[in-house]
Amino acid sequence: MSKLPVKLLKELKKEAEKLDKEISLEDPQKTEQLLSEAKLFKAVRPPREPVSLRIDPYDISMIKRFARKKGLPPTQLMSMWLHERVEEERTQS
């Protein structure tokens, strides 16, 4: 179920259909040329900050187990979980 209002969804659908029509009329060679001349966009993000915290050894072993199953380093998994929770809290506020 979408959280967007129905009116906005209809407007977005119309806009997408309009863009599809415009794109179908474009010359493929010109598009290729423009893409080859385009500069790569790089988003600058601030560097990550190291954080130190004390975690129960049982929790650490479980996190390592979950991370191993997902094929991720434990710190990356914890960072992902923390980010998801922060975003969840942010949208609820």
Describe this structure in words.
With 93 residues, this protein is an all-alpha fold. Helices cover 67% and strands 0% of the residues. Helix 3 crosses helix 4. The mean pLDDT is 90.
Approximate helicity band: 55-70%
Strand content: under 5%
**Overall strand count:** 0
Task: Compute the number of helices.
Answer: 4
The biggest beta sheet reads: none
Q: Give the termini distance in whole angstroms.
A: 21 Å
What form results from the Cα inertia axes? elongated
Question: SSE string, helix = H, strand = E?
Answer: HHHH
Q: Whole-number average pLDDT?
A: 90
Structural class: mainly alpha
Overall tally of domains: 2
Radius of gyration over C-alpha positions, nearest whole angstrom: 22 Å
Q: Point out poorly predicted stretches.
A: none
What is the fold's blueprint, element by element?
Layout: H1 6-24, H2 28-37, H3 57-70, H4 74-92
What characteristics describe this protein?
93 residues, mainly alpha, 4 helices
Compact overview of the structure:
The chain is mainly alpha-helical. Helices cover 67% and strands 0% of the residues.
